[in-house]
Amino acid sequence: MKRNGKIVCIVQARMSSSRLPGKSFKDICGKPVLQRVIERVSRSMLLSDVWLACSEHYTDNILEKFAEVAKNNPLADRRQGYSAKDISDVNEQNPYIGFPYTKLMNANAFIDQSSAIIMTTVKHAKELGINRNKWVYLHGCADTYDHWYLSDRINYYSSPAMKIACNEALKMANCAINDIDFLDIYSCFPSAIKIACDEMNIDINTNKDLTVTGGLPYFGGPGNNYVTHSISEIMHKVRNNIGAKGLVTANGNYITKQSVGIYSSEQPSKMFAPTNPSLYQAKINKDKGPSFIEEANGNAYIETYTVINDREGPSFSILFGRLNDGSRFIANTPNDKDLLLDMMAKDYLNIRGKVQNNNEIVDPLDDVSGFTGTGWVQTSGIGPGDTVSFITVSYTHLRAHEPPEQIGFRVML
Question: In this predicted structure, which of 350-354, 393-397, 408-412 has the lowest mean pLDDT?
Answer without folding.
Answer: 408-412
